[in-house]
Amino acid sequence: MPNLVFVALAAGDQQSGYQARVPDLPGLSVSGAGIADLVAAAREAIQRDLQRLTDEGQEWPRPTAAEAVSAAPGEIPFLVDISVEDPPVRVNISIGEQLLRRIDQAAEARGMSRSGFIAAAARTALGEKIGSGTGADFDAIARKLQDEWSVLGRKITESLGPDSAFNRTVGDFDARVSETIRKTADSISAAMSRRRDAEAKRAKEDDEAAANL
């Protein structure tokens, strides 16, 4: 696994923290509370930026030698080593015009560059899993999952909404249960009323019998 060594330029102090920039990657800047944090953040940021360049089909910059980097007053240079598996190289290929147009359309629909799409297609053809290549693969998967969740959400809403068959079934069931409970309560109430009447009748008969003695 080859290593690349970039020169970063740090500035700051322990009180306010540290910031660093990488001259070979314009626009890239990182910060950290301490030097160790700054070095770790610089390594992660450089790896992300190199991946971005790969996704966009761009070549990686060639790291400038430390002695050739110009530091501004107050900046301190330090080295950031990056382990890379597959640095991109520029190649010239011939491809059919119609096929190239279809590739560009498919890449645009997926938010990918032409080079990124071709690389992803090649990885798929070679049997690599989706997501083992470019960051654009992850974006495509995220969009697909989002679409699938949206469809699932609509289905759940249709199935469980106020006018859904499920809710109608539950409503009918609730109505039947309520009716059964009402009838049972009425039956119990009537039985208790008959029992009270029978007890009152027996008490009256007992009183009349006692009076005749």
Short description:
By secondary structure, the protein is of the alpha+beta class.
How would you describe what is shown here?
With 213 residues, the protein is an alpha+beta fold. The chain is built from 5 helices and 4 strands, in the order βββαβαααα. It has helices spanning 35-55, 97-109, 114-125, 135-160, 165-212, and strands at 3-13, 17-21, 29-32, 76-83. Helix 2 packs across helix 3 (114-125). The longest helix is centred in the C-terminal third of the chain and has 48 residues, at 165-212.
Describe the secondary-structure layout:
Layout: E1 3-13, E2 17-21, E3 29-32, H1 35-55, E4 76-83, H2 97-109, H3 114-125, H4 135-160, H5 165-212
Antiparallel strand pairs: 1-2, 1-4, 2-3
Helix pairs in contact: 2-3
Instruction: Report the principal-axis shape.
Output: elongated
Derived from helix and strand composition plus strand pairing, the structural class reads: alpha+beta
Strand order of the largest sheet: 3-2-1-4
Largest sheet: 4 strands, antiparallel
What is the H-and-E element order?
EEEHEHHHH
Q: Give the uncertain stretches in residue-range form.
A: 131-138
- Which strand-content bin applies to the residues? 5-15%
- Distance, first to last CA: 118 Å
Helix count, DSSP H or I runs of 4 or more residues: 5
Mean pLDDT score, rounded?
75
Fraction of residues in helix: 55-70%
The count of β-strands is 4
Using the CA coordinates, give the radius of gyration: 39 Å
Please tag this protein with its features.
single chain; 213 residues; alpha+beta; 4-stranded antiparallel β-sheet; 5 helices
